[in-house]
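Record format v2
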Amino acid sequence: MTRTEPAGTPLGDQFHLYDTTLRDGAQREGISYSVADKLAVARLLDELGVGYIEGGWPGAMPKDTEFFARAAEGELALRHAVLVAFGSTRRAGVRAEEDSQVRALLDSQAPVVTLVAKSDVRHIERALRVDVAEACAMVEDTVSFLVGEGRRVFLDAEHFFDGYAYDPDTALRVLDAAGSGGADVVVLCDTNGGQLPLGIAETVREVAQRTGLRLGIHCQDDTGCAVGNSIAAVQAGATHVQCTANGYGERAGNADLFAVTGNLVAKLGMEVLPEGGAAELTRVSHALAEIANLAPDTHQAYVGSSAFAHKAGLHASAIKVDPLLYNHIDPALVGNDMRVLVTEMAGKASLELKGRELGLDLAAQPEALSSAVKKVKSMEAQGWSFEAADASLELLLLAETGKAPVEPPFTLESYRVVLDHRAGGEVGSEATVKVHVGGQRVIATAEGNGPVHALDAALRKALSPHLSWLDSVELSDYKVRILAGHPGTDAVTRVLVESSDGEREWTTVGVHANIVEASWLALCDALVHKSLRQ
Amino acid sequence: MTRTEPAGTPLGDQFHLYDTTLRDGAQREGISYSVADKLAVARLLDELGVGYIEGGWPGAMPKDTEFFARAAEGELALRHAVLVAFGSTRRAGVRAEEDSQVRALLDSQAPVVTLVAKSDVRHIERALRVDVAEACAMVEDTVSFLVGEGRRVFLDAEHFFDGYAYDPDTALRVLDAAGSGGADVVVLCDTNGGQLPLGIAETVREVAQRTGLRLGIHCQDDTGCAVGNSIAAVQAGATHVQCTANGYGERAGNADLFAVTGNLVAKLGMEVLPEGGAAELTRVSHALAEIANLAPDTHQAYVGSSAFAHKAGLHASAIKVDPLLYNHIDPALVGNDMRVLVTEMAGKASLELKGRELGLDLAAQPEALSSAVKKVKSMEAQGWSFEAADASLELLLLAETGKAPVEPPFTLESYRVVLDHRAGGEVGSEATVKVHVGGQRVIATAEGNGPVHALDAALRKALSPHLSWLDSVELSDYKVRILAGHPGTDAVTRVLVESSDGEREWTTVGVHANIVEASWLALCDALVHKSLRQ
């Protein structure tokens, strides 16, 4: 079994930054993570440096069981974070060691287990249908069994705030049962999300005094206060805070990991991330939105692309002189940028920076830089986006600076894709490409599972006898976004293609009203980019 | 001139619900209101029953000048709200009555004027470039001049919280100057949005004690706490709260009017809206998003379409018994609805609840219910997702309960789609469908911008002579999700199609390795569902 305490933050185990994107975040309408997605999410959270990653409910959900199995086989290799399995206390009237759900938590091999338990007497009596004594025994037995098996245990006290307001004694008995069983932290959950900050702070202070237990906080955003509630709880004494990436979660969502962390670091001065972690907040937020296949929230606190964007007006010149008078923090602290809208300054500066990243000195070519800014802006107005497509941006900058290859590895004459759903119900896709490569005109036809697959197959068939490196290139991801503001099937489609040659990954973009043409543009850029690196 | 106090709320002038969507909200990146938009926004806010509507900055912005002129001519006819003009104090060294910007505020004929003034000594000295005495004189002169002209005046103390923390004496002198001039309310503005709830509450309490003035609050969302900060300020004694619709505003935005109002009404029991107003929150929020040309935030507190949507299979059986144990308020209070999502966690209870929403009594048919659960689970394992596709789920449940239509409106024999990128660079899409409808075999061919558009066009061409209702049906949204875990272009594709007939909207889903076939499945379900409602 791996370590039970997170590594690398100055606060160590004194403060827990706990992420439940993979379990509670996945409750958001529209999110459906595959096991591969879950592994990718966990890796990004670990790069950021969160202390604990709740991976799911092994035993209850087949995908979660597989996720923990693959993690146990070493697929995750977490550097900072400790993996947590979520589950329930034993059923009523059964010994903890005989409860298959509890055994599945052990089998997951996660070093930490978070158990959920009801702490509102109404839920205990009406939903669980046991008395308070048995509810407490279920908590204490399960915690002490898991602790005896060498696990650290945290207890999520579900519906705690409502329960405490209605019947404080029962709510506290449940917490005490967890403490007696050996739980390290009892987490006060605002499961229905109905609380406000001042009330949360008061209750946390009171409960800390009455129980002497280490307290955590878990907030939902039903009053629009999940972040404020979480921070108020920390200020009142909670030392464990549960969040989800971008606030994903059921109903209005959970407390947003990025806003909570931004506040802890920048406002309360708490070193809850390893060195350099805060500057990764913006990047990780956007990457996690991509994996969830949701558009990043442009107006998200700290990490949104507009979070430090100022409409040029009254104070534009003052902002330039003294930006910190107009920003609540230095945006670089969280890996974000200030933008002054309606000027080209920001565009040039960031393109120049980008060029430097790609090894191009655009500052030395002011005209090329200007024309590249103009080109990028006009393409972005048509729906292109280079934020995630470095490889396509690099090709564009090379073309603008006159450094594009004189000979691209191939040129297209034409393609044709035929899709049919035949009378017998069979569905087929076939593509023919006519390309010029190595001084020859080549025609190739191939079938595929769908139009883009067929097109990719035909292109490879035509090119691979001429391009020795082609076989090493794989399409590792393919994403489609129908751009909002263009309703109906005649919308503009943006396709992102991620390619890999086993050593390097690169992403290209294509935009067109026709999804197949958009895909074609991204596929071609991917191969041209690879050929430049040969 | 019209009245200076809002009409119709039980709290009357004791509490101000103040909206600045038309001024501060319009600072949001991407929002650009026409004068007609501004009038429509003001009418909706008035229907909701807010007390004050800040309409813009007459004199500074031509659109705002026109808006106030048309309002003065009677185009608005506000029933509840009072119109407010926003502007600045006089320039340094000029008499208030001789300052053209101040005169424009009078000319607007708005009965209330909100003046913005700097209250942070650093802004006074570095941006305004006057000394504190002159800054205070600018405030007092301008307020007393406008009050003398029969206006009520509120003062927005810009950057108040930062200024008070840095130099409390200067910040308080500015407030006192406003009070001496005759301002009714001094509004403490967290202009840079860097505050947290407990700190806001402490400062508001302290300032109320030290000044004895009536305090207002204006929060920006840069820490993700604008709503929590606003509510904390009210709990600490502020009796005037400034918000924007859906939190629109510069950077991360402002405090969301709907979440703040929901909290004031449902959590603090304050009657800040006229009778029936709270039940309009959801409708007005969505209508204001439409006018701003922004997609409503599905996960917005109180008013989002997911705000009361439950996914957890765990909870569904309990929710059925006692919905209020799982919702922080009755959704009807804010004009919203509870929804139960059908997901991979779907159990019988949640499917039964869903059936009830759709008017199907599945409890009476336990075998049909069992087989529907099995079918949903097996389809979800292949990538189908019904949580956003009620219409497809309804068709599935109807089929399982034997209530599907004996005759679907049409049957497909075959389709063929041809996409080509010709040698000249031209890209074309053409589809041919062979369908059976109204006892006939119909063949139709159409072109489109892309494969799905062409297929939709061909299908409509084939069917519309036979199905009279077809022309009313529009595709209002089309979403594509490449399911992760199946990398590369041979992935499984899930398509969601939202259709509208001008009265009703419904969503259908299709899943297939071939994106065109997936789209076809969703398109067909959309039409079959419509035909059932005929």
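Residues 309-400 of chain B form one domain.
Chain B touches chain A through 117 residues (CB under 8 Å).
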